[in-house]
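Protein Record: Sequence and Backbone Structure Tokens
======================================================

Structure line: whole-number tokens from a learned vocabulary of local backbone shapes, matched to residues.

Purpose: to set a sequence beside its fold so the mapping can be learned.

___
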Amino acid sequence: MAHSAPAPSRALPRVKTVIVAAAAYVIAFIFLFPYLVMLLTALRPQESLRNPTYLPETFQWSNLVGFWSGGLADNLLVTLQVAGGSTVLVLLVALPAAYYTARHTFRFRTAFLILVLVTQMFQPTAMLVGIYREFFQFGLVDTIWSLILVNGGFNLAFAVWILNAYFASIPRELEEAAFIDGNGRFGTLFRITLPLAMPGVVTALIFTFIAAWNEFVVALTLTTSPENQPLTVALNSFIGQYQVDWQNLFAGSVIATIPVIILFALIERKVVGGLTAGSIK
């Protein structure tokens, strides 16, 4: 009588794998712990702020509701307009620039790319006086357009380099085949090249959006009216000379963080693919 073969025993994970996994969880907890404290502080009642415990005895959910009734919803809308407008502006300029430099060899091409990279080394803080004077002369101080232009300009170099690397990694033969099939330059770009380069486009999009979303110093300098200030500047009003309104400050910070987390979680795979563009031929 034939006996069935014994089921293979499940191999235990190696010690190295366990150590690496444990280290990853510890590092993740270290990075997430400040956000957890921020959320718990946002839900604390006023009288329990000085309690030594991390968990509040009661959760005051009205702190999050007070964010909307306090007028900060308008500042959140301004932040969305600035981040969205900057992202659209960067993509409109970076896409043709990156595509042309990736597909054409022209004189001083390398110098042009290095010049683009050098602009990434300048910090808005070091140029605040010049930026303010320029926008003052054009009458754009205390406007949303000034924030869109500044954020778009300072994130353009990164987008050009990311997209240039991704366009260069796409074989030219695909475009040549599209030309043979009767597609023009723009038809090939939108039907063949851009869909293949979408991970790079998404990478440029998310980094530009997050940088414009979190920008503070330039917005604090160029905007004076509360209705034109983004959320990062509006939250600064909760920090007074003698006391800090921690509940509203952290409640606003939690709400300001949620859209970025959701956006990044939705397109995280494409971001990783875009960052590794050109690494494998």
Summary: The mean pLDDT is 79. Residues 15-48 form one domain.
